[in-house]
Design a protein that fits this description.
The protein is of the alpha/beta class and 304 residues long. Helix content is 34%, strand content 28%. It is built from nine helices and 13 strands. The protein has a seven-stranded mixed sheet, with helices on both faces. Strand 2 and strand 3 form a beta hairpin. Helix 4 packs across helix 9 and helix 8 packs across helix 9. The protein is globular and about 60 Å long.
């Protein structure tokens, strides 16, 4: 019988394929263009010729709009950067008239805005600290002091920005200053109860996400769950969407729906609604940060 020493130095050496995997750099390509033959072949050939390995590929051929949307995750040589990939891919993009972008593993920097309701902020912080949010929260801003302790307990800067009709323009400029100061990629309105101006919406186009209950436009105002109870609703939901100048009508990223019945009073309905809001918002933030959301006119394509 042959005995093999368990502390043999050979047994602790990583396998060559493990070394190769650890040294590989990861990227994501997203693109949209008019549907034509040869697009996928051009993309895969481009990656193959440069020694990249495709790890995930999803595409959607929109027959109604005659467009192709694509997301490809791949890994390969450390010598490449998103800028180099974009430069070398430009000829293919021009040939197919693509709108495209390459992304590396750098996490999106997120600014969270909140008012008095803290359930979405709390959920986002929990997921961020657990590593499942997809991005990094770097600062919290609010028009109330209510959730300063929550933010600071998580080690996050908390910026109080009071808003009145007379100070609204200054408050919005302060927000834009924070975006620049913290190099923010995404602004998340986690139940931030202030209407943004058209100018601010345009400044944040494609990089601001809002959450609200799905009773709109039927049940407007400050007590939507009381209205829902009075009408005997059977579904409670929430909608996460990109912010646009059209109030609560931006391209939808995610919706969550929970079934209820006659036994749910206004308070219980509100609690269920908060659960739906937190779920829909966290998914929308993660998918955006992972480059899984492609804007398509007034709607979105989401590769989950």
């Amino acid at each position: 019988m042959t005995l093999v020493a368990t502390d043999s130095p050979v047994s602790t050496l990583p396998k060559p394929e493990m070394l190769k995997e650890e040294q590989a750099q990861k990227f994501v390509l997203t693109l949209s263009c008019v549907e034509r033959a040869g697009i996928v072949q051009a993309v895969t050939t481009f990656l193959f010729e440069r020694g990249f390995n495709i790890e995930e590929h999803q595409q959607f051929d929109d027959g109604l709009r005659q467009t192709l949307h694509l997301r490809t995750a791949f890994s390969g040589p450390l010598s490449y950067s998103p800028e180099r990939l974009e430069e070398e891919f430009r000829a293919i993009a021009d040939r197919f008239e693509m709108k495209f972008s390459f992304h590396d593993q750098t996490k999106k920097r997120v600014l969270v805005m909140v008012s008095k309701f803290g359930h979405c902020l709390n959920d986002l912080i929990f997921r961020w600290r657990g590593g499942s949010l997809g991005g990094d929260i770097v600062v919290v801003a609010s028009n109330h002091e209510t959730h300063r302790a929550m933010a600071e307990a998580a080690g996050l800067p908390f910026v109080y920005i009071p808003v009145t009709p007379d100070t609204k323009a200054d408050a919005e400029q302060r927000l834009l200053d924070l975006v620049e100061e913290y190099n923010v990629d995404l602004v998340v309105l986690a139940r931030y109860m202030q209407v943004l101006s058209d100018d601010l919406c345009r400044a944040l186009e494609g990089r601001a996400i809002n959450i609200h209950h799905s009773f709109l436009p039927g049940f407007k105002g400050a007590r939507p769950y009381h209205q829902a109870y009075d009408r005997g609703v059977k579904l409670v939901g929430a909608t996460a969407h990109y912010v646009t100048a059209d109030l609560d009508e931006g391209p939808i990223i995610e919706q969550e729906v929970i079934r209820v019945d006659h036994s749910y009073g206004p308070t219980t309905l509100s609690t269920v609604g908060q659960d739906a809001e937190a779920l829909a918002l966290s998914r929308a933030v993660r998918w955006h940060c992972e480059h899984r959301v492609l804007l398509d006119q007034t709607s979105t394509v989401v590769f989950r």
